[in-house]
Amino acid sequence: MDQEMNQNTSEVLAVCPRKKKDKKPVTFYSDRMIFNDETIPYSEIESVSTYSSAMRYNFIFENLTTYIHFKLKDGRKLKWKNGGNSLFGLGSVKAKWTYYIAAFTATMSTVVKVIAARYIETVRQGGTIKIGGVTITPTEISGKRIMKMTTTPLSELAGTNYGVNSVAILRKDNKTAVNGTPCNVDNALCLVYIINTLIGNQEVPELSSDDAVTDSAE
């Protein structure tokens, strides 16, 4: 059994470079990651946040900025960061975006999942947690919806939807329960696992393909 567990935790889940010839890509395992040649157990990561911004100017010039922040329990901060420019469709934006989505997806399925499990345990033990503007108890969630504070029982929630920039919590009437939480808020992505688990929905939605990160400028 121990040998089998060691084999499982040694399996590489994803290798995420920042650029084409990245000599120190981040390597994700089920219980840890290798970041700049240092082994970081997920149990030592306090929070994670992500950010992406893509600007297109007159469909000629594009600029991309992305990052993933990891804050460790010892106070250190690690940053996976990339970005680039393209002119008339030629350049690094498309490739760098592909690298970011791969790193985002790997982070979501490993680090975020582990951190979310801590929150879930707290709630199941009767505690209250807060992520961004969302407060969650064993029976309900509360937060601002548009400009007003609102409370929704967990029994009335349908699940979550998320993209690379925000997480939405949905009610069974397909309306949002609270305002979306930006992914650059510490542990905002954990809401996906927390809400779905607490309402008994074991299916975590796939990454939204709306590409909401791209803003066009005339």
Description:
The longest helix is centred in the middle third of the chain and has 17 residues, at 93-109. This protein has a five-stranded mixed sheet, covered by helices on one side. Strands 1-2-3-4 form a four-stranded antiparallel sheet, with helices on one face. The protein has 218 residues and is of the alpha+beta class. The protein has helices at residues 2-9, 93-109, 111-124, 190-198, and strands spanning 14-16, 26-28, 32-35, 38-41, 45-57, 61-72, 77-87, 90-91, 129-131, 134-136, 140-145, 148-153, 157-162, 166-171, 181-182, 214-217. It folds into two domains: 2-109, Roll (PH-domain like); 128-198, PH-domain like. The model is unreliable at 1-7 and 209-218 (pLDDT under 50). Helix 3 (111-124) packs across helix 4. The radius of gyration is 19 Å and the shape is globular.
